[in-house]
Amino acid sequence: MYPKEITIDEDLHGLLIQGARDRFTIRELSDAYAEFLQDDSLNGGNLKMYVFNQVLRLVEVDWVKRVRVNRGGDQAFKLMSKPLDLEVTFTSREKHVKRRSNGSRKEVNVAASQERLSDGFARSRADAKKYLGGLHEEIRSDLLSSMGEVERYQQLIDVLPHLRGKIEGAYLDARDRRARLQGHMRAVQTTLSALK
């Protein structure tokens, strides 16, 4: 039997291992990565997708495990022990990051990242389906959490109407988050259907 192989971003690996991030969300890891790069101008959505793709690779080789949905509705992951039969290759941050002309700060080369992602996912329908399946699972988990939150706020408002003014803002935020997640879910489902 051949050993498993993985190629991952060296800096993200360092953030996970040296930062002792036993449990984490994509948002937390993306924020830590952006902070590590020391660049406020990073495109959060593209960076989050890049980090999510890296974490999915770790999930595929059983180095990271999905554990739960936290209170904020984000999927949480747990860092496991490195599988003994896993061969790891690190990519240099220079492949994903470029320096500004003054050299004082760094920024993610979004065009290059999108090109790599497009190239990687376009190679085969199976890769695209795998990526979309993971994304679908994450959104579904977030959506279920959000739906539960909205449901609970509705029940609390019914049972404790005198607190309506104090919790209505949180209820409306949860309802908006649920609607956005439903939109994300429809977009991913439509894209999955287009691959068939």
Would you write up a description of this structure?
The protein is α+β, with helices and mostly antiparallel strands. It has 2 domains: 1-123, Orthogonal Bundle (Arc Repressor Mutant, subunit A); 124-196. The chain is 60% helix and 16% strand. The protein contains 6 helices and 7 strands. The protein has a 3-stranded antiparallel beta sheet with strand order 2-4-3. The chain has a two-stranded parallel sheet with strand order 1-5. A two-stranded antiparallel ribbon has the order 6-7. Helix 2 (26-37) packs across helix 3 and helix 5 (125-159) runs antiparallel to helix 6. Residues 94-118 have low confidence and may be disordered.
Q: Secondary-structure blueprint of this entry?
A:
Blueprint: E1 4-9, H1 10-17, E2 23-25, H2 26-37, H3 44-60, E3 64-69, E4 75-79, E5 86-91, E6 97-99, E7 106-108, H4 110-122, H5 125-159, H6 164-195
Parallel strand pairs: 1-5
Antiparallel strand pairs: 2-4, 3-4, 6-7
Helix pairs in contact: 2-3, 5-6
Domain module tally: 2
Category from helices, strands and their pairing: alpha+beta
Largest sheet: 3 strands, antiparallel
Mean pLDDT: 76
- Rg over CA atoms, rounded to whole Å, is 19 Å
How many distinct beta strands?
A: 7
Tertiary shape: globular
* CATH level 1 name of the largest domain: Mainly Alpha
The percent of residues in helical segments reads 55-70%
CATH topology of the largest domain: Arc Repressor Mutant, subunit A
H/E topology pattern: EHEHHEEEEEHHH
The appropriate CATH architecture of the largest domain is Orthogonal Bundle
Report the portion of residues in β strands. 15-25%
